[in-house]
Design a protein that fits this description.
With 281 residues, this protein is of the alpha/beta class. The protein is built from 12 helices and 9 strands. Helix 6 links the parallel strand 5 and strand 6. The relative contact order is 0.10.
Length: 281
């Protein structure tokens, strides 16, 4: 079996199939066997697991996934790569879907089965892909992705450095960086390092608060990054400063608080307060 983490074998395979990395699709091929093993181990795959792999590409990761899972669904946008996958993998446990992950009907594919997402995804659509799976009615049990290091760090941020991206992930699950991956682990090498990101315990954390209400509050809070939370509430709800301060103090925070300092529980409490005062807004 060809080992595509071996650079010489990878180059031979690319040449034999008239392939090259398409920068427009964010293609960088993983050539580090240890990193590949770390991704698979992080997913904690059982023999009866259903795996969705986003962008299987040449099938380097796919080989390892089909060896451990009951079934792997590879969703590949590049038609030529998608056509080569079944022959390269040679395993009936693999189904290949040709299409853009952002357009594919995931619930129809999984049909109410529990599943995990494992992928080495293009940097430019990382946050959109993660949000896609977290916001589905049929959420995955676990997500393990190789992503840009900076994005992984932003997703795992703590209060003081929070962002809309961090909150939009943490409200659904527990993100953690498993391992930092040097850019030299890819061919061609990207400009920055990567990280193996795992998101587990996936479930919306505040079932008594509508998701749209919570995210509206978060987006209002971050509307103007340099302003205090009070100022952002004032601007959006058109209330006096003293009233906005009262809402902040009602959840136990100082009026000088800024959006990046709040915890998830703070945002949930603030959303609840704002919903209770809707008639006054």
């Amino acid at each position: 079996m060809i080992d595509l983490t071996d650079k010489s074998q990878l180059l031979d395979y690319l040449k034999a199939n008239n392939l090259w990395a398409k920068h427009g699709l964010g293609q960088n091929f993983l050539v580090n066997k240890e990193v590949l093993n770390s991704i698979v181990e992080s997913a904690d795959i059982d023999p009866d697991d259903l795996i969705i792999e986003v962008g299987p590409g040449l099938g380097t990761l796919t080989q390892e996934l089909v060896a451990k899972a009951e079934k792997v669904i590879g969703i590949e946008k590049d038609e030529k790569l998608a056509g080569l996958l079944p022959g390269f993998i040679g395993n009936e446990k693999l189904d290949v879907v040709i299409g853009d992950i952002l357009d594919v009907n995931i619930p129809e594919l999984v049909k109410d089965q529990m599943y995990k997402v494992v992928a080495n995804i293009p940097y430019y659509i990382t946050s959109r892909i993660i949000r896609l799976f977290l916001e589905l009615p049929s959420q995955p049990a676990t997500i393990v992705m190789l992503v840009q290091k900076e994005v992984a760090e932003r997703i795992c941020a703590k209060p003081g450095e929070m962002s809309v991206l961090a909150l939009s992930v943490q409200v659904y699950g527990k993100p953690e960086i498993i391992e930092i991956v040097k850019k030299e682990s890819f061919f061609p090498a990207p400009a920055v390092d990567s990280a193996i990101l795992r998101i587990s315990y996936i479930e919306y954390q505040y079932p008594k608060i509508p998701e749209k209400d919570l995210f509206r509050t978060i987006n209002i809070g971050f509307a103007a990054k340099r302003k205090t939370l009070v100022n952002n509430l004032q601007s959006d709800f058109h209330v006096e400063k003293i009233q906005a301060e009262a809402y902040i103090e009602e959840i136990g925070l100082k009026p000088s608080a800024r959006a990046q300092e709040l915890t998830l529980d703070n945002w949930a409490a603030l959303t609840k307060v704002l919903n209770e005062h809707k008639k006054d807004l």
